[in-house]
Amino acid sequence: MRLLVNKVVLALSTLAAILGLIFLFWILITLTIKGINAISLHIFTNDLVNNGLRNLFVGQFILAFIAVLIGVPIGLIAGIYLQEYSFNNKYAKFIRNLSDVMMSAPSIVIGTFVYAILVNPVGHMNGWAGAIALAIIMLPIIVRTTDDMLGLVPKELREAGVAIGAPKYKVIFDIILKAAKVGIMTGFLLAFARIIGETAPLLFTSGNNEYFTLDLNHEFPSLTVAIYNLATMPDKHLVDIAWAGAFILTIFVLIINLIGRYLIKDKG
Amino acid sequence: METFFKRLSSLSATTILLILTSIFIVLFIEAKPAIKEYGLKFLIDPRWGVVISNTQNDKLKNNETVEKSSFEDKDDLDNDLEDDDIAIEDEDALAAAGVTASTDTKVIYGGLIPIVGTILSTLIAMIFAVPIAMGIAIFLAEIAPPKIAKPVGIAIELLAAIPSIIYGMWGLFYFGPFISKIFGGGSVSLLVAGLVLGIMIIPFMASLTRDSMKTTPDVLKESAYAIGATKFEVIKDVIFPYAKTGIIGSMILALGRALGETMAVAFVIGGVFKLPSKLTDPTVSIPVVLANNFAESSGMSLAALFYLALILFVISFVVITFAKFYFLGDNK
Predict the structure, then answer these.
(1) Phi/psi at B45 (nearest 5 deg)?
(2) B5 lies within 8 A of chain A by CB
(3) Which of A56, A206, A254, B89 could share a disulfide with A223, CB 3.0–4.6 Å?
(4) Claim to verify: residue A4 and residue A60 sit in the same structural domain
(5) B113-328 adopts what CATH topology?
(6) Do A126 and A225 belong to one domain?
(7) What are the distances in angstroms from CA A115 to CA B15, B277, B317?
(8) What residue spans of chain B are helical by DSSP H?
């Protein structure tokens, strides 16, 4: 009887695993089929106004890139504070927990916040608002990664630096950050992969733009927002374009994740 | 230089605190007109954007007072002070509305439908996702040989990285029609939204659960096997008790993710302001209301949307904090 129960339960959980995997691969397979069928040279060379995706790729990338430029320095230095300067006091513990809570804050709520401070006063959606919303989402991820990776650097390295009389900031920048470089860069890469696929915080901050533009003071083209708009259109051709965009976005995100995984493994 | 950098670093760390506090304050300020106008009654009012003309308004006003008093009775038991404040403001607002209503129409915004939609879709997602994610975690941690467990584990983790808009799109075009064939109803419904949400959080939940289960020391498992326990007994009596807090914590984290998810739900929930009478009815959730209506709103409707955003923010904040402190422990 015990053996029977054992067999039944193991079979059930294997079945659950298979069921879960079926759903997940169902998604990937439909995405691949629909995406590959819809991809043509046309979508890479034309903007949304001519049923292409060129301006959207560029726009999405720029938004995420500016978010990195804002989020990474603040997050990196905050992470350095938590690990190197705070001596793990109560305030550091508090900030650490707060940052973890912020990591799980609904991204659409961050969108509403940015709308209130950067879109409403200006009167129209703009690229800066979108980039800042993404930076806010990215910040706690950067803090967490930096904090964790610096924690892995052996104490002896710090002591060696201090022993030869280097000031602390020099020890941090010339020794500790170099030792933790791969891990931190991987964290940045994964955070980038996370925000490049975000849609909700962009819907009403940077919105979307049919034309090619680099002007961040106005509505800015975004691939994910465009996918959302196009996919709900009745025109089948537009839906196909959305599939192509979704497919390319997913491949891009997965490749970045694989690279990050490889880097971590390579390091040991 | 040293002190400068030290200051700068502690300032950067404080940014986190500043951003979180200002999110709360800004949302509160923006929502204030709606909070003043509707008070806590917003939480139980099922009307959204309903225009009431002056003749109807008298009747509705009476109804409202009845509703309000019963609601106050209930709430007064909970906390006296806070509610009294709001109740006074409420009466003012109602009186003001009564005056203006004689010449003008009035639009009422209530948050009940999106709140119920959010809770129900998250509930369906959890009921669906928990057993499957547990199955996957047990499979990966205990059943599968390393040769299978490793690639499957990596695949699951990669799937957790796929943008949620992809799940929504797939739900709209493939999963929704599939579900409506089996259970009836339309291809967009509360049920489809909950299930898509569930599928979306499965990879996240499964990999976190697997990681917690793997923290069980091998010695404990081996000694159980040595006295003749079956694999199921080891899982049930050794691994689960050992990793319990971690597993529950990861489930609550997944719950928090489901609560605030926008894109996976926006495609498939229907976006209709209607309380669902059965699972296959379309309805709406807080993030979806925000996503669909935010850009076109102004004045009171915008304030009401900010009120909803504030509610969502507070709920997810409480859920995550609870998970962190009670189950995942104070790390480091």
Answers:
(1) -90, 115
(2) yes
(3) A56
(4) no
(5) MetI-like fold (1.10.3720)
(6) yes
(7) 19, 34, 20
(8) 2-38, 54-78, 80-101, 112-138, 146-159, 164-170, 176-183, 190-214, 218-226, 231-234, 240-260, 263-266, 286-293, 299-322
**pLDDT tens sequence across B258-303:** 998 999 999 999 888 888 888 888 899 999 999 988 888 888 889 9
Domain range holding A8? 1-38
Say whether both A157 and A206 belong to one domain: yes
* pLDDT tens for each residue of A140-151: 999 999 999 998
Say which of B10, B162, B305 has its CB closest to residue A253.
B162
> Nearest chain B Cα to A225, which residue?
B165
pLDDT values of chain A reduced to their tens digit, one per residue, 268 residues = 788 888 898 898 889 888 888 988 899 999 999 999 988 888 888 888 888 899 999 999 999 999 999 999 999 999 999 988 888 888 998 999 899 899 989 999 999 999 999 998 888 899 999 999 999 999 999 999 999 999 888 888 888 888 888 888 888 888 889 889 888 999 899 999 999 999 999 998 998 888 888 888 889 999 999 999 999 888 888 999 999 999 999 999 999 999 988 887 765 4
Burial A155-180 (b: 16+ CB within 10 A, else e): eeebeebeeeeeebbebbeebbbebb
* CATH 1.10.3720.10 residue spans of chain B: 113-328
Q: Please name which of B259, B266, B320 lies closest in space to residue B290, comparing C-alpha atoms.
A: B266
Q: Give one DSSP letter per residue of B18-75, joined into a string.
A: HHHHHHHHHHHHHHHHHHHHHGGGGGG---EEEEE-HHHHHHHHHHHHHHHHHHHHHH
Q: How far is CA B202 from the centre of its chain?
A: 16
In eight-state DSSP terms, residue B270 is B
**Residue in the structure block whose two tokens are 């859920």:** B319
pLDDT tens track for A174-212: 888 988 988 899 989 999 999 999 999 999 899 888 888
Contact A6 B232 (CB under 8 A): yes
C-alpha B39/C-alpha B83 separation (Å) is: 9
Distance from CA of B80 to the nearest CA of A (A): 30
Rg of chain B in Å (alpha carbons): 24
Q: How far is B90 from chain A (nearest CA, A)?
A: 25
Q: End-to-end distance of chain B based on CA atoms, in angstroms?
A: 29
Q: In what helix (H) or strand (E) does residue B108 lie, and over which residues does it extend?
A: strand B106-109
Q: What is the DSSP letter of A94?
A: H
Looking up tokens 């489809």, which residue turns up?
B192
Backbone angles phi, psi at B111, to 5 degrees: -105, 5
**Average pLDDT for chain B:** 82
Query: Are the beta carbons of A176 and A153 closer than 8 angstroms?
Result: yes
Cβ-defined contact of A20 to B261 (cutoff 8 Å): no
Same structural domain for residues A213 and A240?
yes
Please check whether residue B287 touches A, CB under 8 A. yes
What is the tally of structural domains in chain A? 2
Same domain, A30 and A94: no
